[in-house]
Amino acid sequence: MENNSIAKYVTRFFQDYLMEERGVSANTIRSYRDTFTQFLRYYSRNGKSPHEIIPSDINRDMIVNFLNQTENIRGIKAATRNQRLAALHSFAKFMTYEDVVNMAQWQSILEIKVKKAEKPHINYISIEGMRFLLAQISSSTKEGRRDIAMLCFLYDSAVRVQELVDLTPSCINFISPCHVVITGKGRKKRNVPLLDAQIAHLKSYMKDYSIDNQQNLYRPLFRNNRGGKFTTAGVSYILQKYTGMAHLQRPDIIPARLTPHCIRHTKAMHLLQAGCELYYIKDILGHESIRTTEIYAKADSKMKREALEQVYVDVVPEKLEEPSWQTDSKLMNWLKNLGK
Q1: Which residues pair with 181 in a beta bridge?
Q2: Whether residue 304 has pLDDT greater than 60
Q3: Residue-wise DSSP of 210-252
Q4: Which among 261, 292, 263, 266 is positioned nearest to 278, based on CA atoms?
Q5: pLDDT digit string (tens) for 227-269?
Q6: Which listed residue, of 85, 132, 232, 251, carries a Cα 20 to 30 Å from 263's Cα?
Q7: Dist CA 42 CA 10 (whole Å)
């Protein structure tokens, strides 16, 4: 039984399949790890200890009960439930090749349907809001110049926060036309153009921190106050610091809270509103399917309103004439007195 322990399959799933074969991102590894940690804890409360579990112990009913219980007791949303199911689906797919004796069992797990979830709301700020937010950062200090370079880069390139912290100076091409090579989900690379103003901020920051040399070519591009690599939480903290300052002055254009992903949404919406084709926005954002990018077009109420105004401007009369009976004073008086 020990040789057939689920532990060896989970280890191979993470090390050989996810990390080596598929090359998934660190975020995906963490998400899958959390799912398996919670699943094994659930199993230990309802059956065997983790080291006693064998593949045949895991079945469709157990997975469904785990998902239902965590959703009901922990109060997670359907989207989070679906993320956990995706991790377990991926493991079941892996096990159809590793545990062919129980293939029907793993296939039944793969047939568990995702739960319908509310479509996420796209949070973004206006161009005026983005300018005001960045204006809160002082360029008179070394730390301020770093924050300007980092948050401007976050906006201009529309990168995910994990992609930002993983950047090294070697990813930047300073020869015109300047661009950055970003490694996204699934280790897929994409080139995103960088504007002259962004390059100027980057060069100033890199000179301040003495990382504009060959020795630092493969070290982190953006560094914290200890000289180490920024964490995603660290980037969020800095963004929120300036968001709080801006919100106190202009709550009409700056919400109380902004996340790095809101800045990514903001850039996507600004590109769309400027007339950029969805196909190009898809490439900049690193979306695998243009259907993912289409959520920005569906979320832009301003563009919808302008489109409707163009369609109906020659159809709906500017002013409707009053019906003739409303101008008949005798009739109107009679109606007013009716029933008195």
Answers
A1: 191
A2: no
A3: T--SGGGTTS-SSB-TTSSBPPHHHHHHHHHHHHHHHHHH-TT
A4: 292
A5: 899 999 999 999 999 999 999 999 999 999 999 999 999 999 9
A6: 85
A7: 16
- Alpha-carbon separation of residue 139 from 119, 146, 207 (angstroms): 39, 9, 14
Q: Is the pLDDT reported for residue 100 higher than 70?
A: yes
pLDDT of residue 301: 57
Instruction: Determine phi and psi for 183, rounding to 5 degrees.
Output: -100, 110
**How much is the pLDDT for 309?**
52
Q: Is 169:216 a contact under the CB 8 Å cutoff?
A: yes
Share of residues in the chain with pLDDT > 90 (%): 50
Residue 235: count other Cβ atoms within 10 Å of its Cβ.
23
Cβ–Cβ contacts within 10 Å for residue 115, how many?
14
Q: Are 69 and 38 in contact (CB under 8 A)?
A: no
- Which residue(s) pair with 191 in the sheet? 181
3-state helix, strand, coil in the chain (%, to 5): 65, 5, 30
The most distant pair of C-alpha atoms in the chain lies apart, rounded to whole Å, by 99
* Strands of 179-183's sheet in order across: 172-173, 179-183, 189-193
Angle of helix 260-273 versus helix 232-249 axis, rounded to 10: 70
Beta strands 189-193 and 179-183, pairing class: antiparallel
Q: How far is CA 64 from the centre of its chain?
A: 27
Interior/surface letters 4-31, b for 16+ CB within 10 angstroms, e for the rest: ebbeebbeebbeebbeeeeebbeebeeb
Q: How do residues 38-84 score in pLDDT, each as one tens digit?
A: 998 888 876 677 778 889 889 999 999 999 888 776 667 888 889 99
List, in sequence order, every residue forming a beta bridge with 229; answer none if it has no partner: 223
The whole-angstrom separation of Cα 252 and Cα 257 is 13
pLDDT at residue number 76: 73
